[in-house]
């Protein structure tokens, strides 16, 4: 009888280590997972660009002359890099701040309202987070690059 019982027992799932080069490209991460990873990346960007943030703040409020120097860095360039590169760094910082802030509000909302922690809400709030952060970044980027 034990032989028959062991043959009818369902097969246990087989777990194996993944190979990052072959398995990860085929893995489909849900939208909420993408937003979560981008939340961490945006926090790291803000942390790494903290010296640039402090320089921008200090230079922009010290005096009128330093503010003109600040504007010159974005127009003519600085340290051998053209102004376009500095504007791209500032745009990356703008995106990082907006995404981190909006995604942080999303996480706070989900932490305080446990009824909102459903699969549907996670997907819709992740889409809203991406749309808001990218949309606001495009608007502020257009202003930064002088399109309006």
Explain this structure to me?
With 148 residues, the protein is mainly α. The chain has one domain (31-144): Fumarate reductase/succinate dehydrogenase, transmembrane subunit (3 helical TM bundles of succinate and fumarate reductases, Up-down Bundle), CATH 1.20.1300. Helices cover 72% and strands 0% of the residues. It contains 6 helices and no strands. The protein has helices spanning 2-8, 31-48, 50-62, 64-75, 83-112, 119-144. Helix 4 packs across helix 5 (83-112) and helix 5 (83-112) runs antiparallel to helix 6. The longest helix is centred in the middle third of the chain and has 30 residues, at 83-112. It is elongated and about 90 Å long. The termini are far apart. The relative contact order is 0.11. The model has no long low-confidence stretch (mean pLDDT 85).
